[in-house]
Amino acid sequence: MTIDQRGSRVHGDRVAELLALLADEPAVRAFERTVGDEVQAVYDDEHAVVAAALRVMRTGGWSVGIGAGPVDEPLPPSPREAAGPAFVLARAAVEAAKSRSRTVPLAVRGFDDGAGRDAEAVLVLVAAVAARRSEAGWVVADAMAAGEVRQEVVASSLGVSQQAVSQRLRTALWAEEQGARRAAARLLALAEGVREDRGA
Fold first, then answer.
1. Judging by beta carbons within 10 Å of its beta carbon (0-12, 13-18, 19+), is residue 163 exposed, middle or buried?
2. C-alpha atoms less than 13 angstroms from C-alpha of 118 in its C-beta half-sphere
3. Edge-to-edge strand ranges of the sheet holding 29-33
4. C-alpha to C-alpha distance for 8 and 6, rounded to whole angstroms
5. What is the largest CA-CA distance in the chain?
6. Is the CB of residue 19 less than 8 Å from the CB of residue 10?
7. Coil, strand, or helix at residue 3?
8. Which of 2, 25, 151, 196 is the most buried (most CB within 10 A)?
């Protein structure tokens, strides 16, 4: 993943803030500043990539590029020193994400280009839906995402009825988002192309 700040001349450098936000993400090589207000990380888990990308989209102010493909082995300690098709693809993706014509500044480029574009379409749609979510919707969605799957417990902690929690989740399209996240992760896996370790 390559992520670049938008409007840094106006808002100042927010890289430290982003690195703190993503510090707990399970990356193979954690996010580091590469140059200017850009950061980069290496992942081997498509679900983690989806989670990180959507987390950044929720924060706002960033262009996110995802490159799905092989990397040169052995992988060096820092993503800044790494190479391979995935890094070239991530660079192309973040440049595409910066386009002024995009309402959601996120792009995917894959070793399998068709699967990469499909993964991008799903992720962009999820991010666009999430951007329209109300604060009340985020409260219950965050509670569910934190691992609390019983709506009555969420309702009790928020001091509202279970029916209210259920209604907020429906309005927030929370269940639909979970399905779309899984679909995006599957498409990212396909976008990586042939991987011997998966027997594909």
1. exposed
2. 17
3. 29-33, 38-42, 2-5, 62-68, 106-110
4. 6
5. 53
6. no
7. strand
8. 2
Q: What is the DSSP string of 101-146?
A: T-SS-EEEEESSHHHHHHHHHHHHHHHHHHHT--HHHHHHHHHHHT
Q: Within 10 Å of residue 124's Cβ, how many Cβ atoms?
A: 20
Structure tokens at 134: 């109300």
Rounded-to-integer distance, Cα 142 and Cα 42, Å: 25
The identity of residue 39, as a single letter, is V
What is the model's pTM? 0.91
- pLDDT mean by block of 10 residues, the chain; 200 residues: 87 90 92 94 96 95 97 94 96 95 95 97 97 94 81 89 94 95 97 60
To which residue do tokens 């140059």 refer? Answer: 35
**Of 130, 68, 65, 54, the residue nearest 98 (C-alpha):** 65
Structure tokens that stand for 133 in this block: 């979510």
Alpha-carbon distance of 10 to 156, in angstroms, equals 42
Look-up of token digits 């002024």: 100
* Predicted local confidence at residue 78, as pLDDT: 93
Beta-sheet strands, E only, within the chain = 2-5, 29-33, 38-42, 62-68, 106-110
Q: Any idea which residue has 């960033």 for tokens?
A: 62
